[in-house]
Amino acid sequence: MAEAVLVDLLHGCCPDWSPEEEEEEEEESPRHFFLLCGDSHPAPPAPRGSVLRGGSTAERLFRFKQAVDRLQLSSVRVLTSPRGRELLRPYQRLLFTDMYRFDYRLKPEHHLTCPGRGGPAHPGSPGEEGAGPVQQEVQQEVQQEVQQEVQQEVQQEVQQFLQQLPPLKGNISVLKSSLISGCFAHGFSTRTGGVSEVPTLSAMNLFSSHRRRDPVAVVMENRRRLALHAGFHPRPLRLVKVNHGSDVWVLGKREPERYDAMVTDQTDVVLAAPGADCMPVLFTDPVRKVIGVAHAGWKGTLIGIAMETVNAMVTEFGCRVSDIAVAVGPSVGVCCFTLDREEARDFSRIHPDCVPDPDSARPHVNIRLANRLLLQGGGVLPEHIHDDVSPDRSCVTLCTSCHPQLFFSHIRDGADFGIQAGFLWIRGGPEAAPSERLQALR
Fold first, then answer.
1. 169, 244, 230: which is closest to 425 by C-alpha?
2. Same domain membership, residue 269 and residue 242
């Protein structure tokens, strides 16, 4: 397997390194060399590979990640010192994910001498020979404090670097439903205006996981930019922990390990439902001033996640179903979504119109229509549902697969897909009277 080799001349202090050292254990798979150098550090003459020089360490390592991603590599060998490993690991945690395999190869301490210095690269570590138990304990505490300070400094450095990056794919764009009352604030994010570089995740990806290349620091910067644009900064953004089930978390109660919907009457939190073909669905009751969000894929639609969210609002907060408004965000349309015949047959049972071509090898399925019919069957008024069959309202339920410039799509982009979200919160302060809020729905 091909791998990237990062030679840490910045922290490792080994100016006499040459590629020939690695050739001694050359494997069949190719290696791509990158030299992490200081601005005044002399790089080896005619190095084989790229020299990472200029800017902060965060910027250099970000450029290294970009190169690794362009090469489609996930295996990274790092040649450094013990001290260099401790200094690089905080950057690794922020700028990479678990899908990258890091192998640190440490050079012996006595071989490491820094240019212009007569001594070793760094002094002995805490717990060195001759120290008593009490002294060792004190040294360990000091070491932990130093590590915490380093982590904080690295985090601040990474944040400052990412904040100055230009937006990709244009400026931030958010879709809004005219059905949602003014006592709430909301939006459906698109993929524009973020800083994610990986093509299928570019640019406003809002979710990081060990299965994708977008790291937590980049995703948090995307969320910060979205929050500033949408007006919910510094409120926290809570994303549902998708399980493709029907569990609803009522904020204030014990949080389940996984759930596909949330409801609350709190004003200090922004609820969000992710989507990349699955439907992000927003629920509002302007009378009781209660909100909910749900992630509804085809499995969640069949088991009734939307009505489970409505039922939680009714049971927990005394809402009336007839007061609840529902906005369905960007999601895959019937034009692009197919299932096996057996799975599609379940949607035909909801209504034949949900499967326009039931005799096909892989029938097309209209999960939005199925969601609407299930909500209406549960008592939600048809005019209180904003989706792609709401002719008198602006469209917020575009097909994610059909619009690559605006949305991420699992169906279109494959496994390394990005995530957009529908988000919603209750505005603080005095709002319109209940009768006025109800009138806004009609």
1. 230
2. yes
